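Hey, resending since the last one bounced:
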Amino acid sequence: MLKPALSRLWRDRETLQFGAVRRHARVVESVDRTVAAFLELIDGSRDGATLLAAGERLGLDRDYCNAMLDSLAHSELLDDADALQQALARHPRPRQELLGPDLSSLSLVHPEPGEAAEVLQGRALARVEVRGAGRVGAGVAAVLAAGGVGAVTVADRGRVSARDCSPAGFPPTEVGRLRATAAREVVHRASGAAAADRHRRPVTETSAPTALVVLAPRSGAGAFTGLATEAQELMRAGRPHLYAGVVEHLGVVGPLVVPGASACGSCATLTRTDEDEAWPRLLAQLADDGPGRVRSPACDSGLATAVAGLAALHVELYLDGVLPPSVDGWCEISAADGMVRRLRLPGHPDCGCRWQTLPLARPGPTDTVRGG
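The structure tokens again:
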């Protein structure tokens, strides 16, 4: 089938363009009414032989139709309709409708026929743990559940407060409830499980080990890698983890740590200590119950939502086999200007956390991405 995610735009009366974004846009020339009719038949309801026969009935030469299909495939315009249908069929119908746009997006990012379906299935078999259920943590969990991750758990204590609420996480009606309970329901709703329950079919679940842990404490300390004890435990266990949070006006996503293969939170602390010898003492006070705890934390709703979305996207990229820019670096978003910036994080020579070669391709050379 022709990828349904690509717009079909006429450049002139005989030139058809698939896709509006330059990276994916392709142009088909000499498209008359007959060729246009043939292209309409490539909708996933016919196999190759049936398409060729249909093309002949339209008056097109069989070799021409074969060449057209080969050209479309070479241009990454085709996908495997059966694989897409099978990937969605593993979920209840309401869930299929929710995941449809995600699958369409994956078909552009992972262009080989059937590749997007495999990626979506990989997400369905994955488990992610989010530690922290504030504006950022609850939002991360909700976005991951909506994006097809099979199991998303949230760990936090206490009860939901007004400062925990955001459009992506807890609604104001949850204030006063146990954070752990309310977070489970946020994930339940975002995954489409509530709609699936009405149709009496369970949403895909997984018993796989945790693929990644998101450290998003409500204090925002995770933005400055302030969870040394937890991070050390995760490093010793070889469990990948991502820091995310908002401190004052700054949102931070990263580093995403692949133990033994990429720079870790301690590298970030040591690097900053080289610039400011008092940094470890200051960092220790940023914890939820530390003496530096802010009485009225700043956490802009738009910024927290942006950080949650970006952190969830980086997790999804990692699960999909793509190295996000928060590996060996981190991304900062400022409420002052709305800019997204990537800062490099080389492994610190005094840390000793890198004992193997990173198995994934590294990100491109661009280090700063402007918002919008």
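The longest helix spans residues 301-319.

Sorry for the duplicate.
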